[in-house]
Write a structure and sequence with these properties.
alpha+beta; 4 helices; 28% helix; globular
């Protein structure tokens, strides 16, 4: 266990949200352009810059869908779609604060999600 004084001086804060959606529209989940646009726009909404990516690739027949990620100046953004099961997972992790609500609303609108089928996890890390 790290000494708390060390943590206060050396460990950065963490901000993390995971959005899981179910019963999603297959045409949206299968669209690489939408995933790429979402990665770019989430970075902008979080007031961060993409250092690498976005990288967007299609899955394999046994696990169809799309995976996309971007390395941002404060960590990463990833998106996974699962077309066979109609699921979407968006993960934004950062060492810089960002507006979770802006990200939630953008993802909901862009992927045309029904609010009844979305779960949000705002990860709470120990404060320093």
């Amino acid at each position: 266990i790290l000494h708390s004084k060390y943590m206060q001086e050396h460990i950065s804060k963490r901000f993390h949200i995971v959005l899981d959606a179910y019963n999603c529209k297959p045409d949206v989940l299968n669209d690489t352009a939408i995933v790429k646009h979402a990665l770019e726009t989430i970075a902008t909404l979080c007031e961060m810059h993409i250092l690498h990516g976005p990288v967007v690739i299609e899955g394999v027949p046994v696990n169809p869908g799309i995976t996309g990620f971007a390395v941002i100046d404060f960590s990463h953004i990833s998106i996974h779609t699962f077309t066979a099961t109609g699921e979407l997972c968006v993960d934004v992790f950062s060492c810089k604060p960002f507006d979770y609500e802006k990200v939630k609303e953008f993802v909901k609108k862009t992927f045309r999600l029904d609010g009844r089928f979305i779960e949000y996890v705002e990860v709470q890390y120990r404060t320093h």
